[in-house]
């Protein structure tokens, strides 16, 4: 087996990286919540019956505090802390699911684990079960924090997004066990679910305090803009995670494989094709933001405050994308993503 470098276009990013000034404070407390939930090893209180998801060195190598501060540059410290915990939980679920079920091929176990997680996403009127592992403890704790008064309208939509996220993990495992590589036409909307991308507008609203104004929220233009926003997140992650997911985890749910199989081209050609597709989705977002939103705003008759709120949300969305791009291209979690292919 040989490894040959592929000449590829750069992952395009037109927005400058901005860093939240509260990053140092976030770094200082980065371990505390993860350790309290049982995600991070505690050398003073080891628990062989419930091993932690991460060692201390592996946890810090993920630089989740940087991810949070890079994607939410305008957030208050309180909002930053809250989103930081959600980011930690999402990565904990991902790594736990990979080690417990993807690496073992345990589809029945994955389904049972996912069914229990659903019980933590029910309405506040129902009582969740007692958590039995770090992932359950994390989501149970977050359910008490994620919906402060100004974000209570997000409870149902956010939890539906989380339900789709964890369900997609089971579907990904089933695909890998059967060797079924998804088709390109189906993959982009599925990736929005498997990346928890439907929670990202919440994160932007949490950070900026701004919402997309109601008169245009459900318009075709805004739906298209949000789709492009979410597509960049998950599909760019596939490029950064290609080496780890495909060659280490033997996962078939990756844009590079999807493009190669759907278009009938070699992996050598699929890497640049996938990158072009990711860049095209970001260009779609930028076109909609600059060219199609302004006339929509005029037609809808948005007032000064509504326009200011929309601009604040869009600035937050651009910051979110630039922060993800910086994390994908610079974080140690993706250090092995050399965009090589094997044949």
Mean pLDDT score: 90
N-to-C SSE series? EHHHHHHHHHHHHHHHE
CATH architecture: Orthogonal Bundle
What's the name of the CATH homologous superfamily? Farnesyl Diphosphate Synthase
The level 1 CATH classification is Mainly Alpha
**Sheet with most strands: strand arrangement:** 1-2
Remind me, CATH topology? Farnesyl Diphosphate Synthase
Q: Helix count, per DSSP?
A: 15
Per DSSP, what share of the residues sits in E-state strands of 2 or more residues? under 5%
Structural class based on helices, strands and sheet pairing: mainly alpha
Helical residue percent? 55-70%
Given the C-alpha coordinates, what overall shape results?
globular
Number of domains: 1
Which features does this protein show?
two-stranded antiparallel sheet, disordered N terminus, disordered C terminus, mainly alpha, globular, 343 residues, Farnesyl Diphosphate Synthase, single chain, 65% helix
Characterization of this structure:
- The structure is a single chain.
- By secondary structure, the protein is mainly alpha-helical.
- It has a single domain (3-342), classed as Farnesyl Diphosphate Synthase (Orthogonal Bundle), CATH 1.10.600.10.
- It is 65% helix and 2% strand.
- It is built from 15 helices and 2 strands.
- It has helices at 23-28, 30-37, 56-61, 64-71, 77-102, 107-118, 134-143, 155-178, 184-194, 200-208, 214-217, 220-248, 255-263, 267-300, 304-330, and strands spanning 3-5, 340-342.
- A two-stranded antiparallel sheet has the order 1-2.
- Helix 5 packs parallel to helix 8 (155-178) and helix 8 packs across helix 9.
- The radius of gyration is 20 Å and the shape is globular.
- It starts with a strand and ends with a strand.
């Amino acid at each position: 087996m040989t490894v040959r470098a592929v000449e590829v276009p750069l992952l395009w990013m037109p927005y400058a990286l901005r860093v939240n000034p509260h990053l140092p404070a976030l770094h200082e407390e980065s371990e505390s919540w993860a350790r309290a939930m049982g995600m991070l090893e505690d050398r003073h209180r080891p628990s062989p019956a419930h091993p932690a998801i991460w060692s201390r060195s592996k946890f810090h190598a993920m630089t989740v505090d940087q991810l949070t501060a890079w994607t939410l540059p305008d957030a208050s410290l309180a909002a930053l802390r809250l989103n930081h915990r959600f980011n930690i939980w999402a990565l904990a679920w991902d790594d736990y699911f990979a080690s417990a079920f993807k690496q073992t091929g345990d589809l029945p176990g994955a389904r049972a684990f996912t069914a229990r997680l659903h019980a933590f996403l029910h309405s506040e009127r129902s009582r969740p079960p007692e958590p039995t592992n770090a992932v359950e403890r994390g989501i149970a704790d977050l359910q008490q924090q994620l919906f402060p008064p100004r974000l209570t309208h997000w409870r149902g939509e956010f939890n539906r997004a989380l339900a789709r996220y964890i369900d997609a993990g089971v579907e990904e495992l089933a695909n890998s066990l059967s060797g079924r590589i998804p088709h390109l036409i189906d993959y982009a909307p599925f990736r929005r679910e498997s990346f928890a991308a439907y929670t990202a507008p919440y994160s932007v609203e949490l950070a900026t305090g701004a919402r997309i104004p109601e008169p245009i929220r459900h318009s075709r233009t805004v739906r298209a803009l949000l789709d492009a926003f979410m597509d960049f997140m998950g599909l760019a992650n596939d490029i950064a995670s290609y080496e780890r997911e495909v060659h280490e985890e033997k996962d078939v749910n990756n844009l590079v494989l999807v493009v190669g199989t759907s278009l009938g081209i070699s992996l050598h050609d699929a890497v640049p094709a996938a990158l072009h597709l990711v860049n095209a989705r970001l260009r779609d977002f930028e076109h909609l933001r600059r060219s199609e939103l302004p006339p929509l705003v005029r037609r809808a008759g948005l007032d000064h405050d509504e326009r200011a709120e929309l601009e604040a949300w869009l600035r937050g969305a651009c910051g979110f994308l630039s922060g993800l791009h910086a994390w994908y291209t610079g974080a140690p979690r993706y250090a092995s993503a050399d965009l090589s292919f094997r044949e």
